[in-house]
Write a structure and sequence with these properties.
InterPro entries: KR_dom, NAD(P)-bd_dom_sf, Sc_DH/Rdtase_CS, SDR_fam. Keywords: Oxidoreductase. The protein is α/β, with parallel strands linked by helices. The protein has one domain (9-240): 3-Layer(aba) Sandwich (Rossmann fold), CATH 3.40.50.720. Helix content is 46%, strand content 15%. It is built from 9 helices and 7 strands; from the N terminus they run βαβαβαβαβααβαααβ. The longest helix is centred in the middle third of the chain and has 27 residues, at 103-129. The protein binds nicotinamide-adenine-dinucleotide.
């Protein structure tokens, strides 16, 4: 399939690790110039730059701060002249149950996962509207459908909110030629889930229909699909990437 992504410009928040890094690699392989926005994107950007000389940028941002989220978008436009694709993969994960969760952890989880997604996407839609074309892929989670495995209430609430936000943004962005969809991963083996107990990861694998947990590349493949030229009639959708863990 020709994705039509050759020469396009992509911004990936959380692009230094896990799913974001896999998405950045996959988009670069399709010919995108890629801006990595993360708390510390230097190592990942240097690695990607070696494979794709001149096609990689980096910007240090904390997406929970609205001005820094907007800065990620302006950095991509300044470096590469336009913005076509946004992947909002920056995220944090708390494992405390309802009774163990601190006020600070609640606020931080919502600020990064939900507000960070909103502020990056809002600015990106304005930048994409200049060219009348854009693709935004947000990161939800099957935790929003199941109530969470190891994830606690702040994580679950933030990801359920991202799914609603995705639909609201799709309404706002559609007339501007921009689609907004979310991927809804099950348990994916990344640094985020490395800290789960091994038995938790093993149980999660047995709950899928394919008998394994996901890889970052599994999710990146769907992100590339949603970002591709041919998917212009798909917006406001949630695409499960969970090995059959949840079917809806
Ligand atoms: N791994 C999974 O099982 C899984 C499942 C469903 C959804 N997700 C979601 O996918 C996304 C990526 O997760 P991952 O597993 O690749 O995790 P990860 O920890 O490997 O990567 C997350 C990245 O986000 C960055 N980040 C965190 N806070 C940030 C901030 N305030 N500003 C900028 N960058 C920040 C981190 O530095 C890191 O590079 C997250 O939104 C996560 O909730 C992951």
């Amino acid at each position: 399939m020709d994705t039509g992504l050759d020469g396009k410009v992509a911004l990936v928040t959380g692009g230094a690790s896990g799913i974001g890094l896999a998405a950045a690699r996959a988009l670069a392989a399709e010919g995108c110039r890629v801006m990595l926005a993360d708390l510390d994107p230097r190592t990942a950007a240097a690695e990607l730059e070696r494979a794709h000389p001149g096609a990689v940028g980096e910007v240090v941002v904390d997406v929970s701060a609205p001005a820094q989220a907007r800065r990620a978008v302006s950095a991509a436009v300044e470096r590469f002249g336009r913005l076509d694709v946004l992947v909002t993969s920056a995220g944090v994960y708390e494992t405390q149950g309802v009774d163990g969760l601190s006020d600070e952890e609640w606020d931080r989880t919502l600020a990064v996962n939900l507000s960070g997604t909103y502020h990056c996407a809002h600015a990106a839609i304005d930048a994409m509207a200049v060219n009348g074309w854009g693709r935004i892929v947000t990161l939800a989670s099957s935790a929003a459908q199941t109530g969470g495995g190891a994830g606690g209430p702040a994580y679950v609430a933030s990801k359920a909110a991202v799914m609603g936000l995705t639909r609201s943004l799709a309404k706002h962005a559609g007339p501007k030629g921009v689609t907004v969809n979310s991927v809804v991963p099950g348990l994916i083996e990344t640094p985020m889930t490395d800290r789960l107990r091994p038995e938790h990861r093993e149980i999660a694998a047995t709950l899928t229909l394919v008998g394994r947990n996901g890889t970052p590349a599994d999710v990146a493949a769907v992100i590339v699909m949603l970002a591709s030229e041919g998917l212009g009639f798909v917006t406001g959708s949630h695409v499960n990437v969970n090995g059959g863990l949840v079917m809806d």
